[in-house]
Amino acid sequence: MKSQLLGGLAALAVFAAVGGAVVAWLPSDAKTRSTAPSAVEGPAPPRDIGSPEPESSSEESGAPPGPSTTPLPHSGPGTFVVAPGGSERVGKGTPLRYRVEVEKGITLSPEDVAAQVERTLADPRGWTADGHSAFQRVSDGPTDFVVRLATPATVDEKCAEGGLDTGGTVNCSVNRDVMVNLRRWVLATEFYRKDVVGYRSLIINHEVGHFLGHGHVTCPGEGQPAPAMMQQIKGLLGCVPNVWPYDSDGRLVTGPSVP
Predict the structure, then answer these.
(1) Structure pTM?
(2) Residues 203, 155 contacting (CB under 8 angstroms)
(3) 104 domain-assigned
(4) Residue-wise pLDDT tens for the chain (259 aa)?
(5) Overall domain count for the chain
(6) What radius of gyration do the chain's Cα atoms show?
(7) Rounded to whole angstroms, how far apart are CA atoms 1 and 114?
(8) Which of 42, 44, 71, 123 is 20 to 30 Å from 257 by CA-CA measure?
């Protein structure tokens, strides 16, 4: 009886971590595409134009911390539903207009995904803290970039257009698309199992950071916050988890550049 109670409490904790939404996953309609090994850390340096973050090899060692043990769909139709509505401008200067889309067949609300993206980009610790970046979400008209939540196979296909190999496991920023891998959105990584929602903000901050022209950096020192532009999925290297580009005092959280 005690073990059943503890198991129930654990399940509730996981349920809360992913936003309290019950997700009915559709079955995969394709096998995992055979490309370069998914454990390889991103593309070779000459191709690192979108800077994907490969998944830790220990990611799959345990049961997924999501609300369902049903496998997440590996592929989808490659068509998208646009989140309706829009947001006010946040930040100073001319706003970058962006759209949020969710691949058809993923039973996550486009409105909910858009709300998470909006909160992330509007946070005072986000990229608007640089004093010149501004954002505004739209649902029609011209855009500067598009945030797309998609199945792993679709992310791979879109990222490959820019010469990137995301291996079915990670996100990328290529051309004007910020491609968010469904697995990362739902499962996060081993370093953020207790903060899945926070990890979603890290995804957006990292990939939008690439769109803004920021490259990878590494941990600045033992016990310091991990920069948002650090490939935290590889390991924190002594840093502590952090999802924001700037701290609460408006200082950039960064570290030594990574070639």
Answers:
(1) 0.76
(2) no
(3) yes
(4) 444 444 443 433 333 333 333 333 332 222 223 333 222 223 323 333 334 444 332 233 233 344 444 578 999 999 999 999 999 999 998 999 999 999 999 999 999 999 999 999 999 999 999 999 999 999 999 999 999 999 999 999 999 999 999 999 999 999 999 999 999 999 999 999 999 999 999 999 999 999 999 999 999 999 999 999 999 999 999 999 999 999 999 999 999 999 8
(5) 1
(6) 18
(7) 41
(8) 123
The amino acid sitting at 15 is F
**Rounded distance between C-alpha atoms, residue 152 and residue 164, angstroms:** 13
Q: Distance between CA atoms of 25 and 71, rounded to whole angstroms? A: 7
Q: Does residue 110 fall inside a structural domain? A: yes
168 within domain boundaries = yes
Between CA 190 and CA 58 the distance in angstroms is: 8
For 56-102, give the DSSP string.
PTTTTSS---SS--SPPPS---S-EEEPPS----EESSSPEEEEEEE
Q: In terms of residue numbers, what domain contains 142?
A: 2-26+40-210
Q: Which are the contacts of 228, defined by CB distance < 8 A and separation ≥ 6?
A: 202, 205, 206, 209, 242, 243, 244, 245, 253
